[in-house]
Amino acid sequence: MTTIGTEDLQALFARLAEAMAHEKDRLCALDGVIGDADHGIAMELGFAAAAKAVSELDPATADPTAVFNTAAKSFLNAVGASSGPLYATALMRAGAVAKGKTSLSEDDMVDIMTAFAKGIQDRGKAEVGEKTMVDAWAPAAAACRDARDRGLPLADCLAAGLAAAEAGAEATKAMIATKGRSSRLGDRALGHMDPGAASAVVVISCFKSHFAF
Ligand code: ADP
Ligand code: MG
Ligand code: MG
Question: DhaL domain spans which residues (predicted)?
């Protein structure tokens, strides 16, 4: 059983910022096809701001809740696009899971995956099948929880979550959007992956690599 503390989470945000910088052009290109081409910029700016702000917290005094809440606030302030409030809500909900804890358990991380998915759904009111990031997050959280219920360690739960997110993102190609900017395109969005679902895969892939102990 591994425990996850403030420093692990600071390193996780550094990893997320690095991954989004790396994926920025691909995510902007996806958004260029069915949206306004800024999704990579939004995710890079958001996680860069979050990583910088959490790196300035002192692990001696800041608990995991403070890390997630700081990340949420910074992400929201940095991002003007729809992904700003969606991820800010996800991060605030993660902070609520961590409340009162000096470190997080493997079960807490599975709860955090659920909290991310639920936060995004509550904020954006999208259901599975509407061609949004929910199509990656909802199955990822469910697969992660299911793996945990089968007694698997966190690394395997996150691997199951990542596989489900990848399948969910792939499935958005066959969907017509009914939420967000790309809903204006109707069936012209068919055949193209939703950028928010693609970036969700990047986020979950960072979680998986970071906790692969
Ligand atoms: P914007 O469309 O404002 O430019 P982004 O480009 O950052 O915002 O994000 C676009 C992504 O946001 C979409 O690909 C989709 O996954 C996600 N999205 C948009 N609206 C919603 C919603 N209501 N619920 C969940 N996700 C949404
Ligand atoms: Mg956009
Ligand atoms: Mg935009």
Answer: 7-209
